[in-house]
Batch of 4 targets.
Target 1
Amino acid sequence: MPSLKDLKNKITSIKNTRKITKAMQMVAAAKLRRAQEAAEAGRPYAERMNAVMAGLSASVGTSSSAPRLLAGTGEDKVHLLVVMTAERGLCGGFNSSIVRMARLQANKLLAEGKTVKILTVGKKGREQLKRDFASHFIGHVDLSEVKRVGYAQAQGISRDILARFDAGEFDVATLFFNRFQSVISQVPTAQQVIPAQFDAEDAGDSVALYDYEPSEEGILADLLPRGVATQVFTALLENGASEQGARMSAMDNATRNAGDMIDKYTTIYNRSRQAAITKELIEIISGAEAL
Amino acid sequence: MAATLQFDLVSPEKRLASFQAVEVQIPGANGDMTAMEGHAATITTLRPGILKAVGTDKTLAFAVTGGFAEINAAGISVLAEQAVPVEDLSGTVLDGMIDQARELAAVALPEDKDDAEKLVQDMMALRQHASH
């Protein structure tokens, strides 16, 4: 049976924890709004980009002169997994859900006898994957110093990926990130970026009617690397919004749990206090009766 | 009143401009072109230069570093990798861009070297143009 003082200390400590989680929740809420705005602002560019590239690749894709970024290397041996996670924890299952998905994929590829290489973005994912896949790591992008993810970071990452592709280090590249759906739901997503894949319906209509300057192939060769950067950027933005959303709901839960615990311990505290008073009274009364 | 076309300028980070323009001057990869209402549907890549949109009541100019423009019956949308309003364009901003381009040119693969060098030259031309 803990003493009254212990209980009181415990309650104070939980109250402090609740203050912290409450503050974190509010910070996450503010950041979430900004992240969501950023994700929405980036959407028109990504959509137009995809539509144009889908149209182009539909007309060029079948020819033998198609760029390697679109047609692939013709092999399917070495896979690059770009695992994008947060730099910080305390955001519920956000990091683990991405890592779980990446791990499943890696194990599946390894079982098929393929080579897996992993590029991590964000240190949480790296820490979680280190135990099983440390030997597959080929690089890490640290964004902990970056306050606001910009296109420049996405360009940096995509440049790294493209350089490795040009050097023949891998055949297929896949991005792993969380797609933001709502504050309570983030969907872990795997998106193949090299060779580029497009939904047929993105192609839009009457694409074939355009004049191209320079040639279709020239434009496509120019656009594909930009497309990789755009996809990385979209993934970073979606991830940013998801992280804040996940953190917000995790901290909301934590705040509520702390409240429940405070109630529980306050009840115990009051009962013990009452018991102590009753005990003292009984002692006094039985002492008086004994006289 | 002159016929207008819908003009949109978007960068990866945000939508920079969207209004009815009378004419839009684009620094196309193969040379400058001006798009007006009824222009043939065209997709062109951009070289670094000044993009100028003349509206009925305002004229906006942006320095763009690359990307592409799509002209169709609905209007013209320019997807610029980086776009800075000319008013905000100072020597330091440009120098930053030029340095970036130089760095890229330095590490470019042999077959991309010419393109990267050309980018630097285009940037320098832009710098010269802006300083006047």
Target 2
Amino acid sequence: MKVERIEFSIVSPEMIKNMAAAKITKTELYDQEGYPIEGGLMDPRLGVIDPGVRCRTCGGSVGECYGHFGYLEATRPVIHVHYSKIIFALLKVFCRKCSKLLIDPKDMEKVKGRKLSFKELAALSRKKCPFCNTEEKKLKLIKPYTFVEGAETLTATVIRERFEKISDEDLNLVGLKSRPEWLILTLIPIPPVTVRPSITLETGERSEDDLTHKLVDIVRINDRLKENIDLGAPDFIIEDLWELLQYHVSTYFDNELTGVPPARHRSGRILKTLSQRLKTKEGRFRGNLAGKRVNFSARTVISPDSKIELDEVGVPEVIAKELTIPVKVNETNIETVKTFIMNGPEVWPGANYVIRPDGRRKKITVLTKEEIAKEIIPGYIVERHLKNNDIVMFNRQPSLHRMSLMGHRVRVMPGKTFRIHLSTTTPYNADFDGDEMNLHVPQTEEAKVEIENLMMVPMNIRSPRFSGPIIGAIRDHITGLYLLTKDDIKLTRPEYTQIVRAVDKNVELPDKESLTGKEVFSLFLPKDLSIEFKSNVGDVVIIENGKLTKGVIDKVAVGAESGKLLDKIEKVYGGEFTKKFIYNITRLAIEFLMKGGFSISISDQDLSDVARKEIKEVIEKIRREVDELNRQYMKGELKLLVGRSPKESLNHMVKTILRNGVNEAQKVLERHVKENPTLAMVKSGARGSLVNMTQTAALVGQEMVMGERIERGYYQRTFPHFKRGTVGLEATGFVSRGFKDGINPFEFFFDAINSRESLMDKSLKTRHSGYMERRLVGAMQDLKIEYDGTVRDSANRVIQFLPGEDGLDPSKVQKVGIDVRTIADKL
Amino acid sequence: MSEQSQTNSESGLPSRLVEEIEQVSREKKLSKEKKEKLIEEVKKVYQQSIFEPGEGIGIIAAQSISEPSTQMTMRTYHFAGTAGIKVTYGLPRLIEIFDAKKEPETPMMTIYLKKEFNNATEAAKLAEDVVEKKILNVTKRISLNLNENSIEFEVIDKRRIEAVSKAVREFLKNVNVKTKDDKVIVIPKIENVKELQTVKEKILDIHVGGIKDVKNAIVRKDGEDWIINTIGTNLKDVFIIKEVDEKRTYTNDIHETYTILGIEAARSVIIKEALKTMQEQALDIDTRYVILVSDMMTLSGEVNSIGRYGVAGAKTSILARAAFEETIKHLVRASIRNEVDNLQGIFENVMIGQVAPSGTGMFDLIVKADEEKE
């Protein structure tokens, strides 16, 4: 059965009465024995919340019976707060005496057949009724629910009477499909107890739901109002009570009304009433309907494993024994299934439950397993433990893009963490400093097939965002390959055999005494691959027919989010091959690095005396130039930039000098620094940059806050240690030393200011971009490609005739799109 | 839709590819059969590379744009190039574009000149002329004469005195304006001396020359062209100037582009500005997604924002709107209008636990009953 559509409308009193199972009349909830009172708010006819009890209306037990509505007869009608705006709009356009539309019959063409808004209708309305000549009075809505006409307050009864007289034709003209008197409540629907269950505390005391508390208030006041009317109490008392009833009914619907004090619990806590249940992120809509909690899922810390395949996930045995997959027993699998049952719930791979053909669920225990194994016949469903090569979904939050949830194959392992291949950290944006991830087990064959065919890691190597590989080598993988494929690397037969065999036992090895690093790498390349590109440092890299002949392999070749080689391999040989390829080269890199060891040292950043002198000169030069500018500024001789004040001009010019100066220092460093591990990382693009090296070895440079040099702090100076009005470099956040030499307290403080700013920036940014994502998704989630190739929304409107103006799916093509030239060359 | 988006009806290929095929076959001097074969091959590759029906392109677009935006800078201002104009950039600018803010935080124009005026002198002259002049900019020594309840000021350029006094007269009613040498004396009809100050402020703000809202202009050379970059935008008034090449002159104000050049132009500006912002931050995002967002924003013929008052608030599904923002408002409205939710979207179906008609949920398998019997 499928829900085709959902209609929204206003409930009529008849409907409230018809759907009700009980009429609520009593103010008490329970009698002296603690049983719910019939006619009270916990009436047993409204459903069951206690286990073991059967529903008085439908006979169902907890879980079977969803509960039934009741109703309360309001002694006097009350306004539904959320409808006060429309009530006000209606009052304005209908005559207060004859309840006819206040529009002159002459103006009728303007209204008929057109859907006018209430604002437009009100503009057309006459001050004097065209039918009965009654002078209309000025109306005012005092939010949230008081209506004033002239000097008089309109009671809900009066409004309701007026609305009752409105003819259906007039309503049609206004565009209202329900009777307007239904906007004013005479019957109040009482929600079933199942939506407001009471909890029994350990002490045996009952604690009621917020909604029940609110409803008790309503019933109580309603009762008192009735009593007072029956007793013939003075009008003002009745009016006060009526107003109080209105207050309670209003806060029952919405407890965050402006101008109304929120209803509170006895403890002073503000009650959560109907509107509050629906609203916000934790509310029914966003919290329970759009996102739901699920079974068959697990969550634990992740840790790396370089010997696991890219599309595998290491699952701890404890988790594998908890998560199950339903297997339908048939003739062919009955024997294997029996072994699972015989293993029981405690030995992996075992089974936890069997489901009999009649739907009854049976738990497998150490005691019952033999009996159940004998009982099993085709048609039973056995919930067996997770096994190797089962298909699961793996996810890390925040799920910012579709690669945050991918399909993996299970590999059950000892330990208590999920194990993943290092290259898959990029799409998940994971690291191992305590990150946790979630695992979901599909329970139906369809779900499993969809994951296998649409979500597996190899299918997600190419990102739809930029048409390039998002999975690739990272960090040490890149360093390793870079060092391996450098020109002078030679490996003897024992060396290369050991490395290559550790990666892949089936690779054919050439019969040679020694191999170059490039040759070793080429062993893993497809034999017909040819490609040429520029490496990270700008040299040419050539691969001809599966042989790396020139250049090094670095970030540009195989790096995640950039690898040109991976890009090509994915396009030509497909995701499955690329997966294997990435596995091979990352293993190769690690094996090679392990041969000789790899570590970096502070001494990598030692500079020769010549270099230090040159850098000193650069700093001196900066200082001289800035001093000169400052001098000119002080004297007022500074040549101003267009449209800038002297101060702005000075700052701009100084910043340029500083930027150029630091760049110059970087060039000096580049010229002098010797080949070393740190530089290998920088050059290969594995980690770190020349800027980092310059900051450690040479100088940190200018610390900036909000894009300006630091000038804040004390009056006209950054620290009390400086003279007022100092403009020198030291006083404005310039750090002329490197981290290795050490920076002085002032410099350290400036650096801290900068760090704090970027920290704040980061946390603000995540909020803003998170909200932007939500809005973008909210606006575009229903867009999809139709069978005719157009982009349409859920109302079937065409958004684009050809998606992206060329119809190409970015996750299927290379960045350049379709390369006609290469196709032509192949012909 | 723009021209390039049209598919070539003959081959079923986008015109961009058709052109490329033409070009390549011309270059390589391919024979007719060879060219035919090339077209066949390209077609094959094209068919393999197009979107599959059911693909949730909207969500992918939204994710592709926002996932890397966490890497963008928050610091709002940035000095563009050596010209040194302050510009909103990074994430705040991107949000501003998608919000379709009525006025960008840093409105800017790029004015191109017609061929015959495309030189340094004309550009410099125009840059000078274009900047708005207010009385504040053309006068010096403003004083309040408390005895006579009047305001006096000197005009820097004496030749302009008539224009200035005329402007004051036109702008402020109830004033008496006299000129004396290079001085303009304004006598407002007021009772309170305190009001004199406010009148003075008003006078200083009176527009006397140049183009309204243009606060600064800088001349720049870009390849062959002399360009004037301005802070503040006013396309309408700039287009009237005869030296200006109105075909290329451009503003970063989406709404201004919409009112003056129409919705198609606004669409292009959204695409161009969003791409520019992302390129500045070295973010790698496929252009197709930006185009989609822009199409979504301009679909109705007006510029709509991404968000509760724009595209997201105009969705047909009540449940989807209620789940997005302002839950109660949408539910109440739906009940008054007797609205119906046809459950065609994703959110709605997730909510009621059904398969959404998207992706693999777009189709059903139907077994012919009589065939099964056989």
Target 3
Amino acid sequence: MKLSEEGLARALAEQDDALAKCVHCGFCLPACPTYRRLGDEADSPRGRLYLMRAVVEGRLDPGSDAFETHIARCLGCRACEPACPAGVEYGRLLELARQVGGSARPPPHISRLLLATFGTKWASRLAMLGARLLRASRIPDLLTSAVSWARRRSGEESAVESEPHSARQRSTARWGSLWLAFAMVSASAPPRRLFAEVRRRNAPRMPSGSLPRAAGADDRPTVGVLAGCVQAGLFSRVNAATERVLDANGYRVLTFRAQGCCGALHAHGGDLGRARALARRHIAAFEQAGVDFVASNASGCGAAMADYGSLLAADDAMAESARDFAARVRDVSQLLAERGGRAGAPLPLRVTYDPPCHLIHAQGVAEAPLTVLQSIPELQVVPLADAAECCGGAGIYGLANPELGGWIGADKVQSALRTGSEAVVTGNPGCMMQIGAGLALAGSRVRTVHLVEMLDESYRLGGVYGDRDLQRPCLEAPDGR
Amino acid sequence: MNPDLADALTEICGPDAVIVDRDRLLAYESDGLTAYRHRPGAVVLPRTTSQVRRSVLAVARHGLAVVPRGAGTGLSGGAVALDGAVVLGTARMDRIVEIDAPNRRAVVQPGVVNADLSAALRPYGLHYAPDPSSQSACTLGGNVGENSGGPHCLKYGVTSRHVTGLEIVLSDGSVAQLGGMGGEAEAGYDLVGVVVGSEGCFGVVTEIEVGLLPLPEGVRTLLGIFDRIEDAARAVSEIVGVGLLPAAMEIVDGPTIRAVEESVFAAGYPTDAGAALVVEFDGVDAGLDEESARAAGICERMGAREVRRASSEEERAALWKGRKKAFGAMGRIAPDLLVQDATVPRTALPSTLRGIAEIAARYRLSVANVFHAGDGNLHPNIVFDRRNREESERVERASAEIMRLCVGAGGTITGEHGVGLDKRRYMELVCGPAEVKAMRGVRRVFDPGGTMNPGKVLPDAPGEGDDRRAAQGGPAPRRSVGGGGARGTESVLELLPAGQKLVGEEAAEWLGGSGANAVVFPGSVEEVAAVVRRAAGSSVPLLPAGSGSRLRWGGGWPSGTGGVVVSTGRMASLVHYKPADLTLTAGAGMRWRDLDAKLRPEAQWLPLETPGLWSGTVGGAVARGGAGPLRTRYGAVRDSVLGLEVVTGAGEVLRLGGRVVKNVAGFDLVRLFTGSHGTLGIVTQASMRLFPRPEVDLTLRFEGGRERLLEGAAALRTGLLPVAAVELHDGVVAGRECATLRVRVLGGAAEAEDVRTRAEATVGIEPVDVLLGKESESFHRRSTDVAPEPLRPAAVTPRENSASSRLADGIKGLFDPHRILPRRP
């Protein structure tokens, strides 16, 4: 992944104009989760842009400790973009900076291992199979409970109270990537207990009955649902639910194979070469299927796909189809909200919604998920404090930076717990696992649930799907599509 | 970077809190003004006052300077470190220490973000009023350093008005507690006031106490679209002229409108307009519609082609959008943008804007104006390309001309961005050598070694030697007061002609129990200066006075001390008064009642109501300082004094501050002299801020048991009722104890009626009587003669520790080196 000298020069030159937009006003500082915690301006968007500019100006070596540390420490949550009055495209610049930095100095082993795994179809499938087997063994659940119990017993909570920052840092250091990974696998399991509780509360009621589908030719808009890698591996139930709810809301869902990883993790990690290769393959697959919309239920992937236009702008052969593809990308919540959200059975639960960064900041989708949640009868949605702040998951960030990611994640978990919710609803598998793992490690039984799972459960109970699946609890859909 | 220092700082603040890697320090090269790049020697990020204190000491031991820095959003280059100084970042000191809602005060660490404080206060129905445009990012420590403004300062005043206490770490490692506990600056000098706006040159502020205001009940916003910017500016003056006091008045000019409309922030302003004026009223809901209708009428009369109104939050945001997004939009179209900052009196806006356009044309530059029109605070933005050398030079020359233009119009070189590095070269436009020397002296009282943010604000010192001694606050030659004896007094008296002095028996009425044996009436500031210099030379004690009212009350010093009373009574003219500017300049000897008589026909007033106000003079009111019962509405005396002419105890004439409401050019020495009781110098002239006289002035009087009335007063307070003043008086009626609760209501007719009804309901008993208009006014005027205490939180004990009294002594030594003025209170 070493860039040629020429390529490096081009990447830098491209940054020059974009970087000049930053007027150093500092409005992005409080939006940045790493700056808010570390207080070091080099860990703020403005500071990182300044370091990038220094590289362009030849004042800073892209292989320096400073550049590597601060660029790597960025979550890539892009919360700084809406805060920026000058419209600096921080996300794109970060990817370039990571590419430049990565070619000057290779990123840590864990990042490279993860990116290599997701970049290769068979390796990704194998890893996911392993993860599913591990999850089925219930070992992660037991380990997570044990770790959580041990931590609480060792009295870390009280230390956190007395001296918030340093104690928290010490404790998160002990989180370790390993425990986190186990907890994440455990958190990816279906929310069986939660939905069983819904059924218990709903028991005396009659389902609202199925609504007939319009007869005649199926001229509904067609949607291809992104299967993804982690979704397909650990959240196939969410993919299946996505197809069902879209179908119930007036979309014709086309299913097709030959999809791969969308390249989001690689782009965000600065491995732009591999990201472009994956994007090309991906576009070709969807073009063949010929869809009106590309629906994503993983906001990280959605944001990356919506960005294919600029990712492949320099690729003469693909540029146009990339732009066309990007224009068709929608988050599943957008497609649902557009249809006004068909009502299902009541879900008498108290939940809170955590907007994924790549949905709210990168794609600017803030209202649609709430519209969908509000369409579910009796679902009480409590506002989450600092909702728009990253959960610390940030793709592979949480695993690569367990200390800082854990600190940010712990804050998210605390504010989620303060809402008194029974579940945290979000729209991205990474966030589901990160927050879910954090909750479990904090000893909480609160679950993370995908937005689409919620709606799907409401539809099932309400008999929206007709006889199909009626009353059957939401379980794992068959894997390996 | 010295490794020993790095180790020492690491020892103090922890390994992750010290940055010495040259590459990592790049991020601290600039603040919001990137024209200046200076890489610091190190950055340290402490969390506690103790860490700050020890870090400051460690840095000092290694002979380096300290530069305090908040979020680095400043626009004057004030937060960059020259010569490898150590940046002390306050980002980790981001704790809101206390929210004391009943007493409407909060204590915060300096790294708390301005908008975060207001967000935390919202559940209490309170807010922190100053709202600089960078409020989402800038810190309160930075706000204190710069004395920040913001759109809504027109009605509520700048940072200085809202900061009531400070904890500051000085360069010698001592921690001074200044003000605090909501206390007025009555005890000693207003050190809080002089530290606010000192741009980090006095020390590192580590804790800030601020006063809070109730959130306004209602808001009305309107947007006037004008063909010509001069018309918009005239509308601003007219709105103020008729006695309306909007919360904000902001102008966006044609070029800016077009930039906004072409950007992604398009706000729907017509692109062929010459200017857009945003006017916002807030406060009691009743009456707001009427006020905004009047303002809309004025806009139309002044030639607005269209006036849009908003009442819902969304509509309001839409009207504001073009104003709020202006800088962002300009930033998007321009390779580089110089955001200038200067203030002129409001009525000078139209001519100044014409002048700026002329300068821009002459230098072939494109200038766009976005500004706080209500305060006369201009922000001409110059679009240029830094890479074009020749163009950058033109920008430089045009900036200098704009500064001179604004100063010539009676304004100043910076209204809210501060001097920092960028405007030091313009300081001579507003400060003479004497003022600069005085500022340098005050700075040395706080920071004798000059290691706090050196190289900022003041121009380079020419000869350091002469004022070094005074600056050290060191032992001034201590002569015995009164040592001058009869010959000394004689030598002072011979300076003035017969009609301007009284001695012995003739002066008896004047001297009362003052202990002095003569009184002089100099007719000009030069004569005052001559008297002071002569007295200093002969060690004759001087007692500054106005009409002598204080002396009749027994002010002065022990009898037999001797000395001369200096009365400013002959300097009683109204020097300058332009009603639409809402400011005036008066000689110190002008009687307060004469001043009020001049304001009355213009429906304006200066509602201070401090004890003794109505029997004294302007100079007396300034020298006594303090606050009256209307403080929460109109502020204390310190908040109304914009500029002073004083003769210091060393006989130097200082012209401080100006005639504009926003002025951050140099250190705020006006604050030091205000409320100094004549112990630092003799005030000869004062410029004050005025207010429109409210349409309705009424006072409700409730009588009853003390406990019951206290309950009522508390209910008014916790109910956040917008009454102007609440006072409780104990008294005896017909032989039994009976307290009185006075509730004063000021405002427009509808507003006052609404507040009155609610106040009666809140107190829960019928008022025994209601005083209206002049009756209410004169009732309060009379009551200042008996000097009642305003109702205040119980625990008002201004904190003065050894460090702060050392500072006060230093200030005293600086301005009264010969100890001829009264001792400090």
Target 4
Amino acid sequence: MSAIDIEPTDTVDARGAACPGPLMDLIGRVRSASPGDVVLLLSDSDRSMTDVPEWVDETDNELVAVDESGDDYGFYVEVA
Amino acid sequence: MTHRIAILGGGTGGTVLANDLAERLAPEIDAGDVEVALINDDPDHVYKPVWLYVAFGQREPADGRRPLDELVDDRVDLVIDRVTEIDTDDKALGLRDAGGPLAYDHLVVATGSTLAADEVSGLSEGSHDYYSESGALALRDELLSMTEGHLVLSVVGTPHMCPAAPLEFVFMADDWLRERGLREDVDITYTYPINRVHGNPHIAEWAEPIMSDRDIGVETFFNADSVDPDAKTLTSMEGTEIDYDLLAAIPPHRGVDVVEEAGLGDRGWVDVDKHTLAAERAEDVYALGDAATTGVPKAGSVAHYQAGVVAQRLASEVRDRPATATYDGKTLCFIETGTDAASFVEFDYESPPSPAPPSEKLHWSKLAYNESYWLTARGLL
């Protein structure tokens, strides 16, 4: 059950993907998204906790929330 | 009952599998209890690693082509046709040229990768690649005429075939230009989508100091968004713009449309169990090689090892025994670090790679394997 009250436009389930799979999956989805869309990345890779914020910082997109409440991580990225 | 096994795709995975099954199930095939069909839309088998060398004038495209009918065991029914539909409910394949559908009991999808440069604006017009015969030939001509300027290698799409090949390209270009006395007049830049130079952190850690020592520029967090072929600029999603004189790009990759239309997975890749290689969205379907989403590299060694696993599993199923063979993620790659030295990595799902120190011996090992690859395709090595 998500602790984040945000309805994503699209969800990328990268759980089980080997590094750097989750970040690359996110980038691929953001590439085809529209401005204002919120893409939710689900990842079980600890490395995503650094990879994803670092990448978002490099772009005009915004990491609006990170859900760490469950077994996996949920990254909510709003597309610029 | 006759077991009809259909293998879709005559690349490394499909061809090795067909020959493995032909030997493994020879008694059943000879008795008419098993039929193995290999379907490919090109009468030739293509060994893609040759193209990297084509770009530097060291090989010709013909070195990477052999007729499939010279490679495949006579027990295999070789069908040169294009599959237009996969019906996993009725277990039938639609074919472009044949009169009717091809029925199967067991299907193996080994359809490989295709290039999708048109997904990035200007990429087709503004860049060259060495992931196709025509691309490698055009890139060779451009490299031969380049005497100065900025050579950019941009990894645009991932996953892509042979994850080591972008590093190999810049290492070989560096050496090749030095040997020709041109390196001081040609800058080389390498771009990568994430915050290191390779998806695997161990390989990235190994490669970064080599690139620094050899004055190969690096732009990380660079996801090419558009190319302006007239202005010769490459712009990233992150807002960085790079001028180039010659752009060698790794375009986005996709599987084949017929896989996606069959509902087996997104972008033409088949969702599989990464150990059994069984498709997750259909019964009695396996996938291997580039077509299977296992998370390991899209590389020939992977397809080769996965073919052995699928062959064992299919043989067990045909013989009504539990299938026990599983794929452990085994991957082998030679990595050229110049025109006369190479490294080597071996890894699997549990064990990370540890690149070997570059040596001339490993370089010749890679070239020797490229020559002996045809024994692999025949199922002998």
